[in-house]
User: Fold Citrate synthase from Agromyces aurantiacus.
Amino acid sequence: MTDTATTAPTPAPDIRKGLAGVVVDTTAISKVNPETNSLLYRGYPVQELAAATRFEEVAYLLWHGELPDAAELAAFRAAERAGRALEPNVKAAIDLLPTTCHPMDVVRTAVSVIGASDPAADDASPEANLAKAERLFAALPAVVAYDQRRRRGLGVVPPRDDLDYSANFLYMAFGEVPDPVVVDAFDVSMILYAEHSFNASTFTARVITSTLSDLYSAVVGAIGALKGPLHGGANEAVMHVFDEIGSADRVVPWLDEALASKRKIMGFGHRVYKNGDSRVPTMKAALDTLIAYYDRPDVAELSDALEREFVARKGIHPNLDYPSGPAYHLIGFDTEMFTPLFVASRVTGWTAHVIEQAASNALIRPLSAYDGVDERHV
Ligand SMILES: CC(=O)SCCNC(=O)CCNC(=O)[C@H](O)C(C)(C)COP(=O)(O)OP(=O)(O)OC[C@H]1O[C@@H](n2cnc3c(N)ncnc32)[C@H](O)[C@@H]1OP(=O)(O)O
Ligand SMILES: O=C([O-])CC(=O)C(=O)O
Assistant:
């Protein structure tokens, strides 16, 4: 008998392209539930957090598992304020980068520089990782704000200690503190972007952590994953779509052509949510506030028309990037800065996952089914 006669045929491997539907681990950080269209951070509905807390409290919650009490919040805010200023070595590194590069390349480089200058970079204890996470949380707004300013030919605006995270972020970006209504809408966006279970960038961070690499490397990798337009890059891409369409009356012909050429419409669709993204109503309400504040009904008309038309034709709903993109535009951010804003928020979720992965680690290493040429010899 030959070997082939005695060997049972190998069953076809169960390949889940894109890991769709695959549960790879547990997490206590957030729960995305497409059946109930809900999202919980450490048990709290994200809508409640957006209505009743500030982003600093949510960051604390994601890392510690509980909302801070008054004393804990005061201490955390003081630490965040102490770490806000753009470090000279980080500014020097940013200044070396051409303004033609994408701002995601800048924020990725800045995290590398911050990591390279941290003597405890390779200490993976929960305490050391938490300190690194807090450092990045405090440092990233100045990186994003300065990058936008230098592209506009402007200099650094130093942080103000009397302002909370979001007000100070906007102050460093624009040199003035916007009205509370704008700060609140921005803070809501930071809360909504903070965490979303095993999305592509968070999974990247967990893969890197699983090799016992350091937190900064995990965040750098996560930034790379977030940059793509199928993930975080979509908030920027939504604005390009709005610019391309121009006005609500052009939605129908634009969509006819886009769908005929099999284009993906950015800001619509989601791997997990199939009946709408749990965060969209809250972000849409924030966008509506901004539309009213800036008196830009044209933005609402275009946004509503595209959503109405696309949902009617394809049954695919908007994701968080759809209302966030125009919201950041109205606040005054340049379009290519939108995904770095997402980074400033998601760094909280990424680092919470790094800490969780490190605490219960297994090397992440899936299998592949070889479909190349049969064995041959030189
Ligand atoms: C914060 C975030 O990261 S949210 C996601 C942001 N990304 C985007 O907005 C980019 C646009 N959206 C997409 O590309 C997709 O919806 C994704 C990548 C987010 C999820 O995609 P998947 O779960 O892999 O589904 P997939 O891309 O296979 O789509 C399934 C079907 O719906 C279609 N589809 C899904 N989204 C879109 C879209 N935005 N525009 C047009 N068609 C779409 C696909 O073409 C596909 O059709 P087919 O079965 O006829 O080929
Ligand atoms: O969960 C996902 O796949 C993408 C997403 O919405 C996010 O990361 O916020």
Q: What stands out?
A: The radius of gyration is 22 Å. Residues 234-329 form a domain with the Cytochrome p450-Terp; domain 2 fold (CATH 1.10.230.10).
